[in-house]
Amino acid sequence: MRKSAPEDLPDPIDRHVGTRIRGRRVGLRISQTKLGQAIGVTFQQIQKYESGSNRVGASNLFKISQALDVDVSFFFDGIKKENSYEGDYMQQGLSEGPAPSFDVGPLNSRESFDLLHNYFRIPDPTIRKRLFQLVRTLAVPDI
């Protein structure tokens, strides 16, 4: 059973999915109108999806994933367990051990989307690979 949100507030999962849609769309510099046209809905409907006030159906979520060039699972990355479902079996999942947590952190920032957008606009794959290696070299290693 899903935790219930007050009637006038969007469900936390719908808000999360909407935030992920908006972040990816903005990162790719795609307007709400253009995304709406790509999936066959109005820009107002895209606004409602992004705010979480309207739930995105499975078929439209699939179309959005295609238009934004991501896997459908992208929209659910980073959902915290406390925002999902009630019941011990759902809180722990069906696995025998604890599931590793996944923190989206800076991956959902405008800077990350801009970086990826511009990285993939580099036409020469050799230059892209060198830039990737440079960034990896400069980065502080995970401890």
Describe the overall structure.
By secondary structure, this protein is mostly helical. The chain has a domain at 12-108: 434 Repressor (Amino-terminal Domain). The protein has helices at residues 12-27, 32-39, 43-51, 58-67, 88-91, 110-119, 125-138. α1 (12-27) crosses α3. The longest helix is centred in the N-terminal third of the chain and has 16 residues, at 12-27. The radius of gyration is 18 Å and the shape is globular. Residues 85-91 have low confidence and may be disordered.
In helices, the fraction of residues equals 40-55%
How many helices in DSSP terms?
7
From the spread of the alpha carbons, the general shape counts as: globular
Number of strands: 0
CATH architecture of the domain at 12-108: Orthogonal Bundle
- Average pLDDT score: 81
Radius of gyration: 18 Å
Approximate strand percentage: under 5%
